[in-house]
Amino acid sequence: MLSLNKKILVSGCGMSWSRQEKKTWINILQAIGVKLTDVSGPAVSNQWILNKIITNLYLNTEINTVIVQLTSLGKLDVDISEHPERKAELVDTDSLRNFVIDGVWPSSASTEHASKQHWNKWLVSPRLEKEDIFCKLILLAEYCKHNNIKLYVFQGYEIAWTVEQYTTLKNIIIDIDYNLYENYTSSEYYQLHDYSNQNSVPCVAYQCLLAETIANILEIDCTNKLTRIKSKHSQSLP
User: Fold this and answer.
1) CATH code (residue 151)
2) Residue 238 located in a structural domain
3) Which end of the chain is more exposed for a tag (fewer CB within 10 A), N or C?
4) Residue 44 falls within a domain, yes or no?
5) Domain check: are 165 and 203 in the same one?
6) 201: Cβ–Cβ under 8 A, 6 or more apart, which residues?
7) What is the CB-side half-sphere exposure of residue 77 using CA atoms within 13 A?
8) 149: how many CB neighbours lie within 10 A of its CB?
9) How many helices (DSSP H) and strands (DSSP E) are in the chain?
10) Co-location of 92 and 34 in the same domain
11) H or E stretch at 217
């Protein structure tokens, strides 16, 4: 099936985000002609990922395919757009998370600043975070079903769902017992990983495999083009 009739919206963390130096599966699919609107972000939280999907679905009624790549729990996004002092105090002083996207500091799991240390010790709430993700996913699934939108949800990292959440989400999340990063670190591709700057984005050879997997799920016939790209990167460093 050709992809010409697909209006694809994608959201995820840095594992998917296409506007970075390292190439991801989104870049690879775009390179072979698949049209994707990417609203992902680097080091962002699940709140960002799902909110971007829902907001863009509301604004663009032409979207007929949605791909969600969930990230790990415990990430905190901080609005600095109206608080310039936060940039000087939180962003500019961080050795790794020293960037801003759309007026937001995706602090991720950084605990370099005392405020993040206190948040991580006293305020982080995995139970409530999972409940928030669960509620948004079941509502998103209902919206997509009602509007004839194909929804594909992947877990980028492991999330320990409750039994009740698991029972419902196993019908929404593709292979709920599987997550992309664990699959990557246990694969032969992990030896090609670039460990510099604490970067956890999978290498391009694995991204090619991921692009092929997602293309197959979307029923997009691009085998020949993907084979050439995979051959180019199969033995190369990311």
Assistant:
1) 3.40.50.1110
2) no
3) N
4) yes
5) yes
6) 14, 15, 20, 22, 24
7) 21
8) 18
9) 9, 6
10) no
11) helix 204-217
pLDDT digits 0-9 by tens, 88-131 = 999 999 999 999 999 999 999 999 999 999 999 999 999 999 99
Dist. CA 212–CA 227, nearest whole Å: 9
9 bridge partner residues? 37, 66
pTM: 0.93
Do 176 and 132 belong to one domain?
yes
The residue assigned the tokens 């790549």 is: 69
pLDDT, tens digit (0-9, with 9 covering 90-100), for 55-88: 999 999 999 999 999 999 999 999 999 999 999 9
CB 133 within 8 A of CB 75: no
Count of domains in the chain?
2
Phi-psi region of 219 (alpha: psi -120 to 50; beta: other; left: phi over 0): left
Residues 45 and 153 reside in one and the same domain: yes
Residues 104 and 132 in one domain: no
Cα–Cα dist 142/119, whole Å: 33
